[in-house]
Amino acid sequence: MHTIVKSATKTLTIGHDQPFCIIGERINPTGRKKFQEQLRAGDLSAINKDVADQVAGGCDMLDVNMGVPLTDEPVLLSKAIKLIQTLTDLPICIDSSIIEALQAGLEAYEGKALVNSVTAEDERMEIVLPLIKKHGAAIIALPNDETGIPATVEERLVLTEKIMRTVEKYGIPLEDLVIDPLAMTVGADPEAVKITLETIYQIRQRWGLNMTLGASNISFGLPHRHALNAAFLPAAMSAGLTSAVMDGRTLQIVDAVRASDLLLGLDPWGGNWISRYRAVEAAKAAAITEV
Amino acid sequence: MTHDEILKALFDETLVGNAPEVLRLTELGIAEGMTPSAILFDALIPSLEEVGARFERGDFFVPEMLISGKAMSGALNVLRPLLALTGAETVGTFLMGTVKGDVHDIGKNLVNIMLEGAGFNVIDIGVQAGPEKFIAAINEHNPDIVGMSAFLTTTMPMFKVNIHEITKAGLRDKVMIMVGGAPVTQEYADVVGADGFASDASTAVRIAKDLMQKRRASANA
C-alpha cells in the first residue's frame, strides 16, 4: 500500500517497499520556551534554522506544529506553512488537534499534505475526516478513544479497524490512512515498547497499512535518549513501521534508519546509503578545508 | 536489627526501589514495636524526598522515581490503616484528574506516586474528568488541593472551565488548585487562575507542600 504526499514540486511515497519516511519533529514549540515566546510575538525566524537543520539531517518530510497556548493557532500555522514552503520542497505534515488550525493549514498548503492527527473517537472523526476528504489529504489516525490509550494490542487493533471502516465511509481511500500505533515511554512501563512493536506487526500483517508514530516518546524520562531512539527505530521498521515523526537532526538516529533501509532491502544496492556516506565525507572535508 | 538500623535500611531500600525489602522492613519495624509514623516520617518520606532531589538535579531518571514510589506505596498499604488507628494526620488530601477531552495519564500517575510518597492522601479521579466530576469529588473527599493534568494544547483550556465551574459551585475558597502537563507553563497557570504549577513530579510535590503550608498558615491566622 502506498501513501502519496506532495509539496508543490516534490512527490513522496510511503510504503512497505519504500525507504523509511523520516518526518522531522523539530518544528514544534512544546517544551521550547524561547520559541514559544518568539511565536507569541509573531516572530517565526527560528523556523529557518529548524528547516535547514532537518533538511541537512536527511528528513523526507517535516512535521509542523504551532501549538502555542494563548495564541491564534490557525493564523500561526498558516503563516508557518507558507514560510516553510519557501524554504524547502519537502512535503509537510500538518500537526494540530484544533480543527480550525488544520483547516487553515490545509488551505495554506500547496500540495497533498499529511495531517496529524485524528483519534478513533466518533466526534473527532466526524469533524476531521470531511476536511481530509475535501482537501484530498492523507491522515494519521490514533487507535485511542475517549476511554483512554489502550494498554493491549487487541484493543488497538479493534480501534484501528473502526478507523478503517469510518475512513472508507467518508470516501477516503485506505492508501491515505496512516495509523499511529501509539508509542509511549518505556521509562514508565517496561512493556510499553513491546506492545507498540506487536501492534505494528499485526497491522502490517492484517491490513498492510502505512504507519507512523512519535518515535522520541519511547525514551522520555531516560538518559542517553539518542541511543534508545536509534535502537528502537530498526526494531519498529522490522515489525512494519513505514515512517516516524522523529529526531531527524541526530546523525546516530538517522544513520540507524538508513542502515535499516539497506539491511531490510529497502535501499537496493545501497544507493542511498552510499550517497549519504559520500555527502557526509564531503561535508567533513569541506569543514577541514575551511579551518 | 535496632530501630535505627531498620530506619536506615528502609531509607536505602526505598531509594533504590526494592519493593519486597521495603515491605519486609516495614512489617519488621511494626513487629519490633516501631510506630507507623516513625517509619513514615523518619525513613520513607525522607527517602522519597532524596529521590525527588536527585531527579531534579538530573541524577535520577523516571523509572528510578517510579520504582521508589512503588516501593513506598507498598509500605503505605501496611501503614495506612495503622496510621488511621493512631489518628496521625496526613500531610494533606490531594484530588487529581486528567481534564475532559484528554486521556493521557502517565505524568499524572507519576505525580500521584510522588505525592503519596510525600505522605499525601491521593484521590485519583482518572482521565477525561469534566467539571461535574471534579466538583462531585471535591464535595465527597474535601481535598486540600485539586490537581488538574492536561497533555494537549487543546485540552489545557479545560483548566479555566473547571476553575470557573468550581468557583460557581462555591468551592473555590475551599481548595487550592494546581495544574500541570507537558504543554503547561507558569504563565498559563497564572492566566487560568491556578494557585500552583509544576513542570515535573518532583516539583509538584514541592509546590504542593508549599501550598499546604500557606493553607495551614492562613487557617491559623
Write structural notes for this entry:
The complex is a heterodimer of chains A (291) and B (221). Chain A is of the alpha/beta class and 291 residues long. Chain A has helices at residues 33-40, 46-57, 73-87, 99-108, 122-135, 153-169, 192-207, 225-239, 251-263, 271-290, and strands at residues 3-6, 11-14, 21-27, 61-65, 92-95, 114-119, 138-142, 177-179, 210-211, 243-246. In chain A, helix 7 (192-207) links the parallel strand 8 (177-179) and strand 9. In chain A, helix 2 (46-57) packs across helix 3. Chain B folds into two domains: 3-86, Orthogonal Bundle (Methyltransferase, Methionine Synthase (B12-binding Domains), Chain A, domain 1), CATH 1.10.1240; 92-220, 3-Layer(aba) Sandwich (Rossmann fold), CATH 3.40.50.280. Chain B is built from nine helices and five strands, in the order ααααβαβαβαβαβα. In chain B, helix 2 packs parallel to helix 4. The A-B interface holds A 30-31, 33, 36, 67-70, 73, 97-98, 144-149, 184-185, 187-189, 220-223 and B 61-63, 66, 103-106, 109-110, 127-128, 152-154, 156, 182-185, 187-188, 191.
